[in-house]
Amino acid sequence: MIRFAAKTEIGMVRKMNQDFCIASEDKPPLFILCDGMGGHSSGDIASRSAAESMETYIRLQSVLDLDEEKVKRILFGAISYANKVVFSRAQTAEEYAGMGTTADVCLIDFDVLYIGHVGDSRVYLFRNGELKKLTQDHSLVAEMVQKGIITEQEASVHPDKNVITRAVGTNRQVKPDFISLEMEQDDMILMCSDGLSNMLTESEIKNMLISSPNLEEVVQNLVKKANQNGGTDNITAVVIKKLLKEEA
């Protein structure tokens, strides 16, 4: 059994919220987070269009007898479908040109978490007091870190840290990552846009995740801390907790 809470808000600087998230406990539980990019309202349109397209696609699939390969096909199909929707819409008007979005899709089947991932929004695992980033940022600075050109510390303040190398809707095709994880009792999963991960250290994230037994308060505290630290971007947090059946 799981419990979850989600919150998205504009932050302290932006004029509009281009993040969009969906959190649903329908079978199977499904969580989607998209962080749009593009001028004017197009980032907002990209993120909403992608998230709603992925949800529609996944809900139309058979979820009987799921296994890892079947879920991978479903998640990759959903992301590919969303990519076509956003890419096609970007061709319809000049103000939509080049719009795109990150995408993290988490589907839970019994005790297994499956993740489809594109961009630099993140999914973390908090287990036994330790925080682990499950997704790999598709960004210029992440690639530079992997190649040993810069350090993680240098990446955090690099002027190009917001340049992403993969996004939904910016090209005709997209290449997602796929991650699967066997969930354990009291595991917490954090999905977040970079408006949160850029504002909080890992230590601060851990402190916020244990700040309250109430998950609604946890997401409130995460967003509040990101705003206190500057709130320079839109902020979205989704927290999912694995519980014993009798605790739910």
Layout of helices and strands, plus pairs?
Elements: E1 2-9, E2 19-24, E3 30-37, H1 42-59, H2 68-90, E4 100-101, E5 103-109, E6 112-118, E7 122-127, E8 130-133, H3 140-146, H4 152-156, E9 177-182, E10 188-192, H5 194-197, H6 202-209, H7 215-228, E11 235-242
Antiparallel strand pairs: 1-11, 2-3, 3-4, 3-5, 5-6, 6-9, 7-8, 7-10, 10-11
Helix pairs in contact: 1-2, 6-7
Model description:
32% of the residues lie in helices and 27% in strands. It is built from seven helices and eleven strands. It has helices spanning 42-59, 68-90, 140-146, 152-156, 194-197, 202-209, 215-228; strands spanning 2-9, 19-24, 30-37, 100-101, 103-109, 112-118, 122-127, 130-133, 177-182, 188-192, 235-242. The model has no long low-confidence stretch (mean pLDDT 94). With 248 residues, it is α+β, with helices and mostly antiparallel strands. α1 runs antiparallel to α2 (68-90) and α6 (202-209) runs antiparallel to α7 (215-228).
Q: Report mean pLDDT, rounded to a whole number.
A: 94
Structural class: alpha+beta
How many whole angstroms does the radius of gyration measure? 17 Å
State the separation between the terminal residues, measured CA to CA: 6 Å
| Residue share in β-strands | 25-35%
Largest sheet: 6 strands, antiparallel
Oligomeric nature of the chains: single chain
